[in-house]
Design goal:
single chain; alpha+beta; Immunoglobulin-like; 9 strands; about 25% helix; Lipoprotein
Amino acid sequence: MDFRHTMKGRRALSAVAITTGLLLTVAGCGGGDDEKSDKGTQAPSTPAQHSSADQKESQAPQSDTVLAEVKGENGLALTVTAAKRDGGGFVTVEGTVTNNTGMLWVAANWRGDEKELVRNGGSIAGASLIDQKGKKRYLILRDTAGRCLCTQFTGGVKQGATAQWFAQFPAPPEGTTKVDFQVGGMPPASIELSEG
């Protein structure tokens, strides 16, 4: 008797699950022709959608402000586009790296020499801010597991491609407005800090 009740219950649950799945599928597929019926027989304008996507792509990597740009390491170009103090006592530095090395670039020598940083893989974990005036070097911030608060270049950067990056550091004293950003074998990039 218990076995029959169990089987009936399972069948009922299966029927409910299948019905719910079908209803969700129909609801998700519905409403696609509303735009077509309002405009007659014309299909939605693909060029308008494509052009807005192009605008987003072209606007995302570009920044009006370039604080510093340095070249080195066999054709790499590093650009710093922002260096802002945040209320929590840290500085966030952002920019781009362009790979003109002629091959895939994996940022192996940008991750730093410390054992703790090796687990970050190809990243900008070895970067630092240098306060020449205060004679201090600020290393990249890390979470409790030792992961850097920075960009990891997962899969590397292809030849000719540009990738965005960010890195967070402890903030230098309030009076410090200029620092040098240094990573790997790249020349130091002198940047000015702004309030976030």
